[in-house]
Amino acid sequence: MPSEPGISRIPKAELHVHIEGTLEPEMVFDLAARNQVPLAYDSVDELRARYRFTDLQSFLDIYYANMAVLRTERDFADLASAYLTRAAAQGVRHAEIFFDPQAHTRRGVPIATVINGLSAAVRDAAPETSAELILCFLRDESAESAMETLRAAEPHLDQIIGVGLDSAEVGYPPAGFTEVFRQAAKLGLRTVAHAGEEGPPEYVRQALDELGVHRIDHGIRALEDAELVRRLRIEQIPLTVCPLSNVRLGGFPDLAAHTLPRLLDEGLLVTINSDDPAYFGGYVGDNFAAIHEQLAIPEARLYELATNSIRASFLPHERQRRLL
Ligand code: ADE
Ligand code: ZN
């Protein structure tokens, strides 16, 4: 489903994309060859055929396995450059990019390799597309591991804009990470967290109250709690919604069943994002095209959603104004 040229012309920010989730099957094979990493698949087609997910965990298993091919600074730089090029072609003028350092340090790749590689790509991106990095803690690892990761990132604070929380959600409530988020905020970092993707509305509330986050990643299950919806509307807390991801991970049987129209009718500050585009069938422009075609979101609303993404970004107001 290619992003329509019209949609690609709308200036937008992408606020919810995991750089490891932009690792296309072709690049898995290229990097495996470059780094002599054995693969369990014989071809790109065979790998892609495994991308049939039933839930978040079934995706995460293959997402983490594929990362084995990412070893050097150059690998991380190539990965991020490829994403930035594709995103720019779909109208992304600014990206706030998640990365999962623990998924690399636990297999022996130093955090400096990850951050320096990604930063090099951000620095070398085309001048019309800016980018920032958000370090995510894996919530299915311990709070102590998250704190160690934050400490290891301290020499690189000028290379990251914030911290987030991702990975398997149910059974790993945000409140377990209160201390590390407090420490991150003290260091001047912005904060976001995945909540209400598969987990209950209570996790969204905890992300707001315990972690003090500026944005909620996903947040779709907030709709189950009218009081929480009221709060999200009144406080205009941005939700980074990922329509194709939600369908691919079994949240909805198809895109026509997605609750995006309800989120919009409730007056919430919604943005549209790709999450893990190499796995879920499209980049951010493809997500815009899909909601236009399959959810009948009118063009005027697409512009509003793009404007929301710029307003919900961590860009200084002056640059936001220039993009609007
Ligand atoms: N890591 C990468 N993609 C994710 C998602 N959709 N939810 C939680 N963690 C993730
Ligand atoms: Zn995500």
Description:
Pfam families: A_deaminase. Substrate binds at residue 276. The chain is α/β, with parallel strands linked by helices. The protein has a single domain (5-312), classed as TIM Barrel (Alpha-Beta Barrel). Helices cover 47% and strands 14% of the residues. It has 17 helices and 8 strands. The protein has helices at 5-8, 25-35, 44-49, 56-66, 73-89, 102-105, 111-124, 143-153, 178-186, 201-209, 226-234, 243-248, 260-265, 277-280, 284-294, 299-311, 317-323, and strands spanning 12-18, 92-99, 130-138, 162-166, 190-195, 215-218, 239-241, 270-272. Strands 1-2-3-4-5-6-7-8 form an 8-stranded parallel sheet. β3, α8 (143-153) and β4 (162-166) form a beta-alpha-beta unit. α5 (73-89) packs parallel to α7. The longest helix is centred in the N-terminal third of the chain and has 17 residues, at 73-89. The mean pLDDT is 97. Bound molecules: adenine and zinc ion. Residues 18, 21, 56, 63, 166-167, 194, 197, 245, 275-276 line the site of adenine. The site of zinc ion has 6 residues, from β1.
